[in-house]
Structures are given as structure tokens and as C-alpha cells.
Write a structure and sequence with these properties.
The complex is a heterodimer.
Chain A lengths: L23 H23 L2 H22 L5 H24 L2 H5 L12 H15 L6 H12 L4 H7 L4 H17 L12 H20 L12 H15 L4 H14 L25 H16 L7 H14 L8 H14 L3 H15 L1 H9 L8 H13 L3 H12 L5 H14 L1
Helix pairs in contact in A: 1-2, 1-3, 1-5, 2-3, 6-8, 7-8, 9-10, 9-11, 10-11, 11-12, 11-13, 12-13, 13-14, 14-15, 15-16, 16-17, 17-18, 18-19
Chain B lengths: L2 E8 L10 H13 L4 E6 L7 E5 L6 E5 L8 E9 L3 H8 L4 H4 E7 L10
The chains are: A mainly alpha, B alpha+beta.
Amino acid sequence: MTAAPGMTAPAAAGSAAIPGDPSRPALVRLVRDEGRRVLATLVRTTGSVQLAEDAVQDAIERALRTWPRDGLPANPRAWLTLTARRRAVDLIRREAARDGKEAQAMVLLEPDDGPPPSGPVARDDLLRLVFTCCHPALSLDAQVALSLRTLGGLSTGEVARALLVREATMVKRLTRTRQKIAQARIPYRVPAAADLPDRVAAVAATVYLMFNEGYLPAESDDPSRPDLADEAVRLGRLLRELLPTEPSVLGLLGLMLLQDARRAARFDAAGEVVLLADQDRGRWRAELISEGVRLVGEGLRRSPDRPDPYVVQAAIAACHGLAPSYPETDWNAVLSWYDVLLTVHDTGVARLNRAVALGERDGPAAGLAAIEAITGLTDYPLWHASRGELRVRLGQEPAARADLRAALALPLGGAQRRYLQRRLAELT
Amino acid sequence: MPVYAALLYTRDVDWTEPGYDKEMAEYQAFGEAAAAIIRGGNALYPTPTATTVRVEGKGGKVITTDGPYAETKEALTGIYLLECADLDEAVAVAATIPAAWDGAVELRPVITFPTPPSA
């Protein structure tokens, strides 16, 4: 998921733009959303992710070619389903002709050539696809790439640009992933109720990883790079539609929306990081904040016994989202939520964030003591940077400079690095 | 149904030595519980008994070396062939093999080549 420096992105593939067509993005979105549902069903009826994807990709390309010319079909999903099925039959015939077992192969498709499924069947097909793409036997990188390709409907070239890898590398990664699904027989199935919480947590982790990849300052100036945060939010909404009562799904979507609401304020005109304390809250998107807050409430009602880590993190984000200004943040509430979070998700980073909040409520000395009590974070640049900030407030400037230098000696994203360099320059 | 090779990586032990009664009982229990899906398998003598064979080009000089192919902290000490519906089932079965808590179990789908018409 890291880019080779100086690498240039390949040209867009599979999405020849119609210049000057204002409805083009809406059409692409419609075709992708419908294509995903068609794909989910075709994976079930053909038993092959690879075959289904090839067939649906072909149908999508035909749709993007012919719909602008001939107009939108009355039922786009039925059109895509029929076109993709015919293509799948062609592909199977071609394959079978080579192997001499055509009769066998055709059984897979012929009996099911009716209208596309709708309602619970279509929902279950999509859910099966979600759980296959995010199966724990696949590496996280593979899950993210396959989810973007298969659930997000991005072309392989777009997935490559989104994850800042070469297109050829992405082609290989996706091929290996589909081969593993086929050869190791990763099932196309909604997990049993007993396994569901763990498996939903794995799906949520994949989507949140995708969101964070996109939420971090982009190190790429490629304007055709798909926005990972947008794709993750879209997947979060899909998960909510499919699993409307799962607390971690509600919490994940709430957390992403509450963070996404601040996106425009997180960078200044020059592309430099603006800290939460300094952000122009007028640029936060109020509608996303209120949607996120509602999701937190729903998530809490649905997890009365054991708090869900995503719901609790979303609750913390909601405290910030609802505060009229940084000094007016309800730090008591923030700290209470961090205490709850540590009971279900005790990590060094969660402890660090709690220590920073403690520093805001009880003063820098208390925050510093809490930071220094955390062990195991000396490789984490923000541990050093946070310690440095509190030492600045305590007037310990030489020690603060040493902290910022220690942070800068560790791997950091470009925008974060520039921020810490500016901060260090201010202290020198 | 697909068949999975379960490769058991554990401490490099000699199962023929005394002192493994507890482990032997655990494997006995697994063997009985999974009898319906076990298609084969064996415990292996420890890695000092291993011989690695290489040939310098097809038909060339045979070179044997003492020891396993890869020297690692954990050694291949046993194998099973398990017939399971899919990977989820194979994982659930592998999780009951004693090696899973005494080391690790690697699952590899077994290739079934089509039978030639003459066979």
C-alpha cells in the first residue's frame, strides 16, 4: 500500500471519458452500483469470482458505450444481468470447448436465466460478496484491493492509482487473490450467527483501513486518483443497508462520517495540516455530523451490554463534532468515552489520545505524566510529538525540541512531517 | 469435495520417544473426532533424520544434504489430508489439531488433476 517514489500513474483504463457530458459521473455511478449487485448474483450462479467479474466488466463497458447513445434501458439492472449472463455463458463455452466438457458447464447457468433476483436474495448475494472479499484468509492488502475492485466497482487501473501501486502490480495482486479464493475454496457464504460478530469486525477493519488510507494527506497529485475515503464511506453505507442492526457497522459509518465532516477544514489553502484546535468549524459539514451523531445513538442502543469499539470511537468524534469551539469541548465526556474505549480496545494509541485529552482537561503536567506512563510507543512519532507539545506548554522548550526531532526521525507522511518541521522552527 | 493438506509445524520432537503421552492422547482424540474426513496422514520422524535431495539439472548429479529443506525454529512434524467442504470448514478442523496450539498448521488445497481418458 505504499508507492515507489517518483512513480507515475498509468493512464485511466476501461473508462473512456465522453468529453463534455455532464451526466457522465452519474452514469458511471449508476452502472457501478447496479453492476455490483449483478456481480454478486453472478458469483453465486457461476461459482467463480473471476468469471463473474470478467462478464460484468464486459457488460459495464457495453452499458457505458451504448446507453449514452441509445438512452437508459427501462430496467438497467435487468439489462446488465442479461448482458453479463450471456457473456458468462460465452466465456464458459469457450473454456469448455477447450476442455471438452460443455454439457457439464452449462448446467451452471441455463436454469437461472430468469429476471434478476431482488429483495432478500439480492441482499444475501451482496452480503456473501462482502464476506468473501473481506475473508480473514486473505491479506489485508488483498482485501482492500478486491473490495475496491469488486464492491466499489473501480477499474483495476483506478484501484492501482487509489492504492498508489503500479497497474501491473495490481493486476497480479487481484489475480492472485481470485486464485486463492477459487483454489483454497474460500466459501461464498454469509457466516453462521456464531461467527458473525468476528467476521463483521474483520469487514469493518478492512473498510476503516481503506478510509484511513484516503483520510491521510494524499502524497499523490494525480487528479484521476479515486478518493479512498469516499469509497470507504460508500462501502460503509452499503454495509449499513445490508446489516442495519450490527453495532460495529453503525459505529464504523458514524465514525467515518464524523471524521469526514471535518475534511475541508483539515488542510489550509497551501495543503498544510490544520490541527483540530485551529480548524475553522464553519467549514465542518453539519449534515454529516448530525448523521454521525444519530448513528452513535443507534449503535449505543444496540450494544447495551458490551460497548463496540467503533461506536465508542464515534462517540468521541461526536464530542468534537458537537463542540462549538476547541476550548468549549466537553473534555469530561471525551475522557469518559476514552475510559470506556480502553475497556474494549486497550491500545497504546488509544492511551495516547486519552492522555492528550487529559492534558486539555487537567493541564499539561497531568497530560505529560500520562503520556510518559505509556510504554511501547517509542516508535510512534505522535507519541514524541504529543509529549513535545505538552512540554512546550510547560516551558520546557529544549526538551520539546528533542521530542520533535525524535518524532521527525521516524517514518511520517509528508504533510505531518512538514507540520512538525514548522513547529520545530517556531521553537528554535 | 476439496482435499486440504494440513502441514503440522511444531517443536522438532521425536514422537517415538517416551514422554509424549499427553500429546499422543490429544492426537488420538483428534483422529477419532475427524475420522470421517481424514484421507491420510502420518507423524514424521524429527528433522535430524531428514535428507534433502537435489539433482544438478535433469539427469545430472544427485546431491543429498543432511537435514530439512529449510532450517526453521518450528519443523514439519506431521501431515494430514482432510476432505472438507470449503476453507472455513478446513480452518475449523485445523483449529482442533493439537499442532495448532503447539505450533501452527498450514492448510494447502490439494490439486486434483483430471483423470486421463485411458486410465
